[in-house]
Queue: 3 jobs
Job 1
Amino acid sequence: MSPKDFYNKCISGNLLESDFDIGSKQRKGSIRRKINVLNDAMNLFVAGKKIVVEEKFVKNKVVCSFATSDNTCTLGFILENNAKPKTLLKGNELKNITDVGLIVEKDIYSDKVKRVVYNPNSYSEDEIIDIILDR
């Protein structure tokens, strides 16, 4: 399945086990757990949720730059120019956690902030500027 077809099936909620060449029973269970929490991952940064982060996340053979969790799922990322998802796990698999207080999306070609993604502390615009500028 092409990445585009996979993405479209994920968004439409039509991704099925039969869409994968699964192989072993162990892989089948792992894929089933990922499918079961895919919707949770899509709503990870919704306002009102508490999320935590761990830098240099490692789980078995999977190594991520960082991972985040809301206790329903753990989403691991790799940093290559920007953050890209690398793994999805059921439950909270983080060990050395730090609370997340703010997530912003920056413009890829500059340091300008495009939008606030997650702001559980309801920081004002001035406070966000101070945080970003480390004042």
Job 2
Amino acid sequence: MAEELVLERCDLELEANGRDHHTADLCRERLVVRRGQPFRLTLHFEGRGYEASVDSLTFNTATGPAPSEEVGTKARFALSAAVEEGAWTAAVVGQQEGALSLQISAPAHAPIGLYRLSLEASTGYQGSSFTLGHFILLFNAWCPADTVYLDSDEERLEYVLTQQGFIYQGSAKFIKSVPWNFGQFEDGILDICLMLLDINPKFLRDANRDCSRRSSPVYVGRVVSGMVNCNDDQGVLLGRWDNNYGDGISPMFWIGSVDILRRWKTHGCQRVKYGQCWVFAAVACTVLRCLGIPTRVVTNYNSAHDQNSNLLIEYFRNEFGEIQGDKSEMIWNFHCWVESWMTRPDLEPGYEGWQALDPTPQEKSEGTYCCGPVPVRAIKEGNLSTKYDAPFVFAEVNADVIDWICQEDGSVHKSVNRSLVVGLKISTKRVGRDEREDITHTYKYPEGSPEEREAFARANHLNKLAEKEETEVAMRIRVGDGMNLGSDFDVFAHIDNNTSQARACRLMLCARTVSYNGVLGPECGTKDLLNLSLEPFSEKSVTLRILYDKYCDCLTESNLIKVRALLMEPAADSYLLAERDIYLENPDIKIRILGEPKQNRKLVAEVSLRNPLAVPLLDCAFTVEGAGLTEEQKTVEIQDPVPAGEEVKVRVDLLPLHVGRHKLVVNFQCDKLKAVKGFRNVIIGPA
């Protein structure tokens, strides 16, 4: 009788599997593979080798606290010659003396997560079992049978593997790109993402069901959307929008997700203070990319927050045009969420592709602060019964705004406001390039097109279907050049009288600092022309000067000023409103790389900025990070004041660990300038 088969060790072939599964950055100490694709391992036996005629090998995989074959969290499968589609399989690849090379394949619908792998070996009547090790299973955008399959190699590289990118801020007329370090493959991040799944309320309620449902990116996306905010769980970030961030970190300060996720884990899953929409979206993007779901951050300009789903935002203003009363329904200057790529087997065909997910806590969805995934296509078509949360996302890009002017005598007048269109310039980073891509057309049909009317009819968007009346007098806010932080500048109310009558009007111009979510600060410029006469068929331009002295102390970190013009014609009882958000440019951060950029060789980044103000800068600090360039964030504080017009310069040591293209992301802070961002691409060559 043949002697018993004894396993000496199991080689998990980390290097080969990491390369084949696009997980090399995660595979340095343990096995990380993608579902629906075979991975290799080699069994080394003591004494004699495996003999197919006398030995039988059976494998077990299990995930979750109480694995069960019934719900798909456990599998038992024998070594076989045939590969069975849609099931766990093991097959021999080759054999040499005491070594047996195998490939094991997880079905493309297996739940993702941490798995235990064991072996039962039997020879005749004798048998023994061995633990082979653990592996982490991820979604697989490279596998056609996976629900997150993406057909383009360039897009898989961008939306799954790229660790840095841009988030768009500013205003619709001045789009600002902010660099961000997603860092989904940095040390410890994968474990943090799995931990985030394991403390979500659904797991705590019913761990077996939760682990089983991790086979679906729809389910996982929904869990991540809820866990990135801490509103109903031990989630990652606490949101705050009141400009008081003294007991935490200002949302504008962050330059990457890695620092945030590590803080959350280090402090025992205590919420990290503070986040705003782009921080929530960026952290969600990191987690979803890490788990293998193709994801991108998108920004919508003039984004409506519609609480009652009537697709209408109504502003009640006093006779000076200032908003009064309830501010719960607002137009945000911009709002960020993420889109993830997946099929939707839970919906009728045609809804696969990009799905919007919004982790910023705004409204509850099925009792939890999460939003989506909802197919972007459903938003475009106005199909608002589509899961999940279609009415809220539809309103963000399509709500109508009505302004009511309330006079002192109690009378209320509807004002015409042509300047505010909801849902403009929806933006994301272009694939493979440091440029913006406009994806508005994926959310809405061209304005006035028959398809747009049909989508509005389906969405029962009666406000938008009403005909727009043409105005005989038009007004818009125009700006000059050189609106840099620290400078004085002019803005103009430009008025056209397109009629044959002269008109006697009053024009009130007002500039106020504003946060990106629409909350107004103090005035920083005002003009009231009681007797403005408009000649027939004429144009008029009225200038408002905005002084640095007036805005310097009340500008928020959003760097935004809202200019409002209200034109009243008492004789015709008409009110015309125009608004524009102005973004003030920060100074540039210059980054020089000193030394030859090679793997595992020290490199120095020289980072500098010129003080654009007429006063010295105090408490200056540069913070830098970059996936593959620094192991953790580095901050350099400058002790001396930086005089007006002078340059401040520091050097930071880098140690690049990986070959290829990386981004060094920099933040500069001081008493007078907040959240100034810069970046530099660095290409690292082999050692």
Job 3
Amino acid sequence: MQKIFAQNATETPEPVKADIKGLVPDWLQGTLLRNGPGLFSMGDSAYNHWFDGMSLIHSYTFKDGDVYYRSKFLRSDTYKRNTRANRIVVCEFGTMIYPDPCQNIFSRAFTYMCNAIPDFTDNNLINIIRYGEDYYASSEVNYLNQIDPHSLDTVGRANYRNHININLATAHPHYDDEGNTYNMGTSLMRMGRPNYVIFKVPKDATDKERGKLALRKVEQVCSIPMRSMLYPSYYHSFGMTENYIVFVEQPFKLDVLRLATAYFRGVNWGSCLKYDKEDNTYFHLMNKKTGKAVSTVYRGDALVVFHHVNAYEEDGHVVFDMITYKDSNLYDMFYIENMKQNADDWVESSKGFSPPVVQRFVLPINVDQDSPQGTNLVTLSDTTAQAVLQKDGSVYCTPETVFNGLEMPGINYKFNGKKYRYFYGSRVEWSPNPNKLAKVDIVTREHKEWTEKNCFPSEPVFVATPGAVEEDDGVILSSVISPDPDIAPYLLVLNAKTMEEVARAAVDVTVHMDLHGMFIPSSPM
């Protein structure tokens, strides 16, 4: 699997016209912008983990039925430092590096004990975020790199900490109907109890005439106190409805002391995450308008979650769907050493890992404390999820299983925060490396798939047909790679209703497996 997922990619800085099979819809105008790891060694040094690779931004631009491909490495400070040294000199998630091998143990101890939280890499390889009219390559640290979404040039660097008091932030924000951006960060360095912070960047925050970036207008919406100062919950995403933020405080935790002394003790940052299977999961509802929390304590069994699918409100309930795991071993599968196996061995060894499960949770917003203990407070007729009132007044939540074996979920984003019927994702059957795309109908619980031998599609992205009324009226876009040298990488276009192929745009260049991104429609003339 290392052959196709963890080999060094090369840039394609100038647009390359794709060879199209089928017919790309005339209305599909814009750019599919993607991000992911693309460089895994420099000089004689190599990364230990797939999530450590240097960010490579790539794009497929659709114009009048044609498709053009290009890619460029993110010119982060980390990339520049590594390139100048011709070796890896900046620590990453799974790779601890000592730039000066002769530095003694006392010097290292002094440096790190004086800085409770280490200064992180700015290798933003996870996603693309829009703040105002600015676009940023993002990961889960305080640094962002601004990019030009058309040329893919790196045009600036930003630090959340210059605008709001957070040390970490998600790479999965939400956008409301007005175009404002909501995101979430962790504040570990502040007076009093550390908090999880929800913040908002207004749609009109960018001032291009004065060269001012959107982040200067960031607004704190609310904060959520941590249950443990030394063991804050790890989170990769969150949910948002019309009126509420949904935050899952899971028992997959960051050991702050271990993080602060990681360099001194010679362990990587990834080892600072620990799963406490004996703890509960806590669900927080925060009112977006008032910044106040719903006072009810909602909790459930221990789980691990990386990706939310969607959330919405219905008849006094908040309903949210997310992809859960029974343990935190997913990251271990992506250590490069574990990826050196062939596909058959990889699938066999993957069977010991917890598979992803799409689960639905339902939280009653207004809890009647006079209800009898043991009462299921969920009154919706289309779900078996339960929320049972406990003796102490808390509500214990039991989910409904919606679908087994799917990751990297996507929806028609016009339905984000609203009741919806369909979601799309990468089909995962004992292996995190997808070779199928799936569409799931939540109402009928039926699903449709696209697959092709020796082809590995990336996260599916839904683009709606202009003026569409039906939720699934549009196309699915996915970048596809293959270990077969006779199969050129291509951009796949599927009919979102049927999951049948509409077109593919093949390019005779190196294309890497990516993680996340977005479609940016062309501005009307």
